[in-house]
Specification:
InterPro entries: His_Pase_superF_clade-1, His_PPase_superfam, PG/BPGM_mutase_AS, Phosphogly_mut1. By secondary structure, the protein is α/β, with parallel strands linked by helices. The chain has eight helices and six strands. It starts with a strand and ends with a strand.
């Protein structure tokens, strides 16, 4: 058996627009974010992915709403969806809610860059990307991946850093490689997996 895994980062949020650290805070999507989610649904439909067997998302509203909008767009509003904190965005701790420019003024550009772009250095009271992976990887390996490998088509709507952790595991990337990996809002990444969980095919459904 093999299956299909679709990863989607939520559409633009109000705090993305304001250049704020978001993390586990829960701002809604902007109008642009709603449009991104609907466009993701249209691109999935155009690529032949108009039906899913299972959905997974985080406990945060922006990811949940993105998934809901995608499913409404493809015409599948009755999908079984699991919500789990394991898929939440990286926790930015004391940085959450701060403007990124203000944070640079307070702590210095070099320190904020280390917090944002290092693999294993967390901000005060928060998580590093490695910490995020430590809660995301077990959930993927024990819950999501087995669902895909039973031959199902699965969609995951989550966040930049929780998805980067998943991509790191899926593609076997090093810490240095994943730090350079950008995941755009509202752009589906489609993996077809072999029965041994390796990647048979990957496509990025850009506009």
């Amino acid at each position: 058996m093999s299956g299909t895994l679709v990863l989607v980062r939520h559409g633009q949020s109000e705090w993305n627009k304001k250049n704020l650290f978001t993390g586990w805070k829960d701002p809604d999507l902007t109008e642009a974010g709603v449009a991104e989610a609907k466009a993701a649904g249209e691109r999935l439909k155009a690529a032949g992915h108009a039906s899913f067997d299972r959905g997974f998302t985080s406990k945060l509203g922006r990811a949940q709403r993105t998934l809901k909008l995608i499913l409404e767009t493809i015409g599948q509003t009755d999908l079984e969806i699991s919500e789990n904190v394991a898929l939440n965005e990286r926790d930015y701790g004391d940085l959450a809610g701060l403007n990124k420019d203000d944070a640079r003024e307070k702590w210095g550009e070099d320190q904020v860059h280390v917090w944002r772009r290092s693999y294993d250095v967390p901000p005060p009271g928060g998580e590093s990307l490695k910490d995020t992976g430590a809660r995301t990887w077990p959930y993927y390996l024990h819950v999501i991946q087995p669902t895909v490998l039973r031959g199902n088509t699965v969609i995951v709507s989550a966040h930049g850093n929780s998805l980067r952790a998943l991509v790191m595991a899926l593609e076997g990337l090093t810490p240095d490689e994943i730090l350079k990996y950008e995941i755009a809002t509202g752009v589906p990444i489609v993996y077809k997996l072999n029965a041994d969980s390796t990647i048979a095919e990957k496509s990025v459904l850009e506009a």
